[in-house]
Design a protein that fits this description.
The chain is of the alpha+beta class. It has one domain: Glutaredoxin, CATH 3.40.30. The protein is built from 10 helices and 4 strands. A 4-stranded mixed beta sheet has the order 2-1-3-4, with helices on both faces. A hairpin with a 4-residue loop joins strand 3 and strand 4. Helix 5 runs parallel beside helix 10. The model has no long low-confidence stretch (mean pLDDT about 95).
């Protein structure tokens, strides 16, 4: 039986690049027939998500501390993101992850679709029960280094605090307001810590 790292490599090799993922979304917005039933159901969300991702891609510039930490990784790392094109949290976080990965040629980033890879998803459930996305799995040739997702810890805590007093629609609005105000600060802080640990 293949060990966990070998299995992760198989999933990684079946994935697509961030550029290909973005292009798939662009094509789907023009020709919805390439989307599956779930994506068609959430096509309005996908349009909004595309605008959010594009804004981050255009405006986010990694600070020197982040650049130095990312470029300090000397061994190859495989970054495997589990997500879907309609996921709002993915639209708010994946552009940052892709830009961080691009800072070092030793970091290889691939994306796989959750609903096509349930076995993989079920290895990385949130709180042992939820198929929440995006989920990032980082590993090298020998071991799993860390996982991240589906959203920054500070936002997870905020959601748990408001969830009993808000409707689902209100919570979604609150989530995106939080992202807009935070501008990636919490995500970057978490990734600096994770990258330092993974390179030590």
């Amino acid at each position: 039986m293949e060990n966990k790292i070998e299995r992760l490599k198989i999933w990684f090799n079946s994935g697509i690049t961030y550029e290909a993922f973005s292009e798939f979304i662009n094509e789907g917005l023009i020709n919805p027939a390439i989307f599956d039933e779930t994506a068609l159901k959430y096509s309005d969300y996908i349009k909004m998500n595309k605008q959010r991702s594009s804004r981050i891609e255009k405006t986010f510039i990694p600070d020197q501390d982040l650049v130095q930490i990312a470029q300090g990784i000397s061994g190859e790392q495989y970054w495997l993101v589990i997500t879907e094109e309609w996921c709002g949290d993915s639209a708010q976080n994946l552009p940052y992850i892709a830009k961080i990965a691009a800072l070092n040629k030793n970091i290889k980033l691939k994306i796989v679709f959750r609903d096509e890879n349930i076995e993989l998803m079920d290895m990385y459930l949130t709180n042992g029960k939820s198929r929440s996305i995006p989920k990032l799995v980082v590993f090298n040739n020998n071991r799993e280094l860390f996982t991240w997702g589906p959203r920054p810890g500070a936002l997870q805590k905020y959601i748990s605090e408001i969830s009993s007093s808000r409707s689902k629609e209100e919570i979604l609005n609150d989530i995106h307001l939080w992202y807009g105000r935070n501008k990636g600060i919490e995500l970057i802080k978490e990734f600096k810590e994770l990258l330092l640990k993974s390179s030590s």
